[in-house]
Amino acid sequence: MNKDIISKATLFCLVLFISGLFLTMIHGFLMAIFMAGLFSATVMPIHHALTDKLGGKETFSSILTILGIILLVLTPLSILITLVVTQAITIGQSVTPWVQSFIQEPSAISVYLEKIPFYDQVLPYRDIIIQKAGELVGTISSFLINSLSSFTKLTIDAVFSSIIMLYVMFYFLNMGDILLQKILYFLPLDDENEQRLLDRFTSVTRATLKGTLIIGIMQGSICGVAFAIAGIEGPVFWGSLMAVMSIVPAFGTAIIWGPALIILALLGDLSGVLILAVLCGAVAGNLDNIVRPRLVGKDTEMHDLFVLFGTLGGISMFGLLGIIIGPIVAALFITVWEIYGDTFREYLPGVKVVFKKGKEKPHLPE
Q: What is the pTM of this model?
């Protein structure tokens, strides 16, 4: 008995050690592998349909699926990134003289302050506003310069990661079902909980891709067109930035077009103000309430706070890909705790929280 325990404990430690060593060795490719698995699961129905139409030729259907992703996703994305960077450089170059004028003569901002309603009440705080505005402009300028300087390295890394991702996707599409069975087999959970985790992973992935990305693209496109009509420089850059900011509940794209609208108002451009208010505020702003329920439905089953912090935390940890990864991790976090509550229900005491005097609301487990 002792010999059997020692043997299993040794094997378990060996599995942990070798697995940790292997994952550390390939840690630079883990994100590309994860994204390959994510996109493979997303396009798997298309791959199965192609396989059926081609008479069971899985390899050929995998090649066609990969080519479709390159033509329909990666190529337009590369063109968009090129336009965004080009316009970002142009904006940075045009902003630099303006920034320098603020640094050399911060009082120039008082010309704009005088156009603000209730200027007399703001006047006592003018010096503080000028100082903070100069610091903010300098910080934004430095951020743009530093971001653009690292673009070359990011581009090379993105191209290399995309090649690895497509290469891995080819094998995932061919043997994804076998690999998934292996993973579930080695996961020491019962079938019901394994299926529960798998269903939550796929549903949140689908909801994130449909909701966050599609709505982000729609809002970014509409707001970018509004910026172009209003005559604001770099509409593609600002539209792409607003597509990313659309993930933030309540505020979303208004974080970008709101200050732009205020600046146009201070400059006296009433037509630009009207364009941004209608297209960005009324049209794009209501897309989230109208389109998201139809696209996402109840797939996520998460509170907005979990979506918000999952997305922001994902971005801070994984970069731009965190828009997709963050909500998935948050959903798995909730699901794991739900499984824990169901599994240990008989050991967990019932809890009653008093919400109002004389009223109690029981909580699970009952």
A: 0.62
